[in-house]
Amino acid sequence: MLSSTKELLETARRNAYAIGAFNVYNLEGVKAVVNAAEVYRSPAMLQLHPSALKYGKLPLVSLCLEAAKQATVPIALHLDHSTSENDIQLALKAGVRSIMADGSPMPYEENLQFTQQMSELSHTYGAVVEAEIGRISGTEDGLTIAEKEAKMTDPEQAFEFVRRTNVDSLAVTIGNVHGEYKSPPRLDFARLERIRNLIDVPLVLHGASGLPESTIEQSIQLGVCKFNVNTEVRLAYMQALKDEICGASSKDLLEIAGEAIEAMQEVIAEKLQLFGSVNKAHLHINPYAAILTAQAHNQ
Length: 299
Ligand SMILES: [Zn+2]
Known about the structure:
Elements: H1 5-14, E1 19-23, H2 27-39, E2 44-48, H3 50-70, E3 75-82, H4 85-93, E4 98-101, H5 108-124, E5 128-132, E6 137-140, E7 143-145, H6 155-165, E8 169-171, E9 177-178, H7 189-198, E10 203-205, H8 213-221, E11 224-229, H9 231-246, H10 253-275, H11 289-298
Helix pairs in contact: 2-3, 2-10, 6-7, 9-10
C-alpha cells in the first residue's frame, strides 16, 4: 500500500527501528525494493534522486506510485536531495508527497530561506519535507563533495533551523559519507545525542551503505529512524549485469533483469534486517484508508 513518510517514520520511532529508503532508477530497482519488503513483511521507501527524476520523469514517478499502491506492505515514495524548486514542483504535481529540500550546498542563511520556501510549498500539497544542515562528503550520482568541504551538523544551529523552517525530518551529518567509506566509519554519537535532545522531528542518516550493525543500532537508539541506501544497491545491480552479460551462459534479456533484481533484493533484505523493520509491516496503519473508505461509500 502507498504509505506516507510521516506515518512510516513516526511508527518506526515509537517502536525503535528504522525505515530503509532505497534509491531507484528503473523498474528493476522498484521491483527489488518492493519484493524484499514483501518477503520480509517490512515497510520501506522508494527514493528518486533528481538525476533519476530527470532520466525517468513522470513515467518513473507513476511506476513508483503504482508499485507502492499494489504492494502488500507499506511503501512511501520520496524525492531525494533536491536543490531545485522546479524539480520539487514537478514531483509534487506528479503525486510525490515526501520531499528532500536540500539547501545544504548553500550558505546557512540561503539554506534557511530555500528550505522555508520549499517547506511551505510542500505543505500546501500535504507533503512532508526532509532538510539537511551540515554537509555530507562523498559522491552520489555524479556530485562529489570533498572531505574538507563537508561540515558536521551543529546541534544549536539544527534546533534553530528546524524551528524556523518547520520541516518534518532532518538529515544530520555526524561523520557519515555518501558512497564507499574509505576507512572504517566513525560516527560522532555525542553530537547525535545533543541533536536528539534538542530536536523533536525524526532524524535521517544518509550514506548508510557500509555502516556496521553496531553503528546502525546505536544510531537508532539515538533517534535515527530513516537510513538512505544507494551505493550498495547500485553496485549489486551493475555487478550482476556485468557478470550476466559477460558470463559464459547466454541468457535472455528478462533472465538477466531477473538476476539483477535478485542481486539488489539481497542487499535490500540485508538492510531491512539491520534496520530492524522486518515483520513490522503490520504495525503501520494505512494513512489513506479513511479517504479510500469514504470514496467507496460515496460511489
Ligand atoms: Zn544523501
